[in-house]
Amino acid sequence: MKYSYILFLFISLPIYCQNTIQLEEGLKSPKASLEDVSWIAGHWQGEAFGGITEEIWSPPLGNSMMFVFKLLVNGKVQFYEIGHIQEQEETLLLQLKHFSGNLKGWETKDETIDFKLVKIEENKVYFEGFTMEKVTTNEINIYVLIEHEDGTKKEEKFNYKKL
């Protein structure tokens, strides 16, 4: 019985995390530039968490692409994110910070949530636990591995259309 439960976990885990991956221990992020991910730039809107999600990504400029994210539920802002993808040491790093609807920060003053680059494909970029996929020039998917308060992790999909 114990072994069948463990087998179930190994078989079912990839089903729930099909689009997010981690950098293998001891490996460095691959070489990359912002031009490799410039297709992310734009004003995007979708639905998730029972509300409307919005992301605005700037084109590459000054070794970074900045973004803002907003979640609205029942017409009220639940939270914001602000962040960027930066070119650092010939690779890319995605960093972000969270803010409640009244702009009170979730992370400490100097703390950021960092996602190292794992790999890039023609229409997909994989950061650790955060994947962006170009479906068409007017549609993208973002997959985020979210850890919940009880310690469980679940991959969430955000589908966006360009405004």
From TrEMBL:
- Give start and end of each DUF6265 domain: 38-144
Q: Could you tell me what this protein is called?
A: DUF6265 domain-containing protein
Q: Which InterPro entries match?
A: DUF6265
Species of origin? Maribacter vaceletii
